[in-house]
Amino acid sequence: MPETIHNDRWISLQEVCDYLGVKRHTIMRWIDQRGMPASKVGKLWRFKTADIDEWVKKGGASDEREVIK
């Protein structure tokens, strides 16, 4: 994989995990509970890095939104 991910291409679930440094379970929870921008193509999830960057900047991945049980 190239060191620089281009903002105009779609990346896979594994690539977004590597990009953000989190596990698959976390990404799936963020899609379901926090509205992480993602598109399902057949059975596969795809992501635009520009959309992910914007979502993170707006606080989408912030721990402050975690529900304490």
Automatic annotation (TrEMBL):
Coiled coil: none annotated. One of its GO terms (molecular function) is DNA binding. This is Helix-turn-helix domain-containing protein. Residues 10-58 form the Helix-turn-helix domain. InterPro entries: DNA-bd_dom_put_sf (IPR009061), HTH_17 (IPR041657), SinI_DNA-bd (IPR010093), WH-like_DNA-bd_sf (IPR036388). It comes from the Bacteria. It comes from Sedimentibacter hydroxybenzoicus DSM 7310.
